[in-house]
Design a protein that fits this description.
The protein is 44% helix and 20% strand. With 557 residues, the protein is α+β, with helices and mostly antiparallel strands.
Length: 557
Amino acid sequence: MKKTKSIRLKMTALFVLFAVLFCLALSVFAYLTSWDAYTGAYAESALEIAEMTASFVDGDRIGGYLETMETDDYYNQLQDTLNTIKRDLNLMYLYIFEPGDDTYFTFIMEAQLDDDDPDMLSELGETYDIAIDYDAFLRNENKDTVHKVILYDEYYGFAVWAYAPIYDSSGGIAAMTGVEISLQYIQEGQADFLRIIILLSSVITVLLVVGMMFVTRRVISKPLSKLTDNALNFASGDRLSSFECDIKTGDEMQTLSEAFCKMADDIKEYIDNLAAVTAEKERIGAELDIATRIQAGLLPCIFPAFPEREEFDIYATMFPAKEVGGDFYDFFLVDGNTLAVVIADVSGKGVPAALFMVIAKTLIKNNAQLGKSPKEVFETVNNTLCENNHECMFVTAFMGYLDLQSGRFTYVNAGHNPPLMRNAVGTNCVRPQCVRPQNDPTLHPQNGHGRYEFIETPPSLVLACFDGREYTENEIQLSPGDMIYLYTDGVTEAENTNGDLFSAAELEKVVNKSADCSVKELLESVKREVDVFAADREQADDITMLALLYKGDGRHE
């Protein structure tokens, strides 16, 4: 019974809080709704008056008064007309002005009545500090752009303000009319309206709370107290027999009681299976940990990779999204003068992708070491992977051969992301068949490097989709100091907490901020930027990168 009283007190406090919030919300909603309705109507009236006034003003003459600062009969007649409109329509202000820049405008004329405060009125040529989006009129081809706002006047209080353009005979905007209508009567009426709304909402919420408390006590409090006692008895006694399913309310409480009974029956089976499940989970975790180390061991991971070779420097990293991944990279010497680099991404993630990755990596390397060109390697590997590929997995891959003596880079792309290239000078050569002369005096600049740009790679089909496909080789010429950056879509498709992608454009900016970095520093910089972009978002795809610096004779860094 003590617990039932505690629940009842908590629910009473909750209902009272709900009543107060409901009353406030209802009052604020009603107040704002009525305020919007009234001010909207007044704003439309102000706009109609501004447009009506603008319609009978001579646009060809009105702008000239600011040039001469002299009035004439037309000016005086127009002044009388504005005075009449202001008096008959009970306006705060009615005036004609010429916009200046974005911060002020200049009065041409203002309606003036005998009972107006002289200090609140303006004469010809006076300026007033206020921002007007004058360019909005010039951008609008239909010449129907208007502006209306609610502002606060120190003398009259809140008011609505609207302005409309006055056009000359050429269609240009010569000046504008401004109208301000006081909202004083609306404010006074709103205060009385708010008091009535608060009173009515208070009565409604009190009645609602009393009714809810009565119903809650009969439907929730008593059955819940009984269910709590049963649960405590079950928890402190025999877990298999002490829970009593004796709540017969015919509603969710009875369903909850029956669910507790079912839970008691399931607990013994759960406890019996828990040890076995835990042991199996630990075994799987240990095996995945071994698989992670095995996969890491399959990729070249000792750097510098070829310390005896001075013609190039290379560095690569792979960060799987799960324990094992489907991305891979590879680099090896095909012969004493040719370096092969490979980067690829297997569809999917986890163990299936990792198994397919091992097969693809092995096939690519074996065929390359048989002396085949990149084109021949991909065609052979594609046909082999298509055999018995019942799971319809596929691989995007990029492979290139670098002739270490000449710097000629021959590559083939199977649906993979285009790499980025930075040369040692300020003009990149990233299009296929683009060859720069080796005797170019700009190959060794005094300061800095060129920009990273995407290498043009014509689209081609991924590996393992259709057998018999032919792939196209392309070629670019590298010079000492040129660097190539390869990556998988885990970089460009990294997401932040808003679901935005890192994107290829952002990657290009990041690598260019690190244009003077070494191969290792470049990859560390990109990974750091991706991590900052993704923040707390869990890594969704494998992130693999490879950077290759061509040194040529070994002296260029």
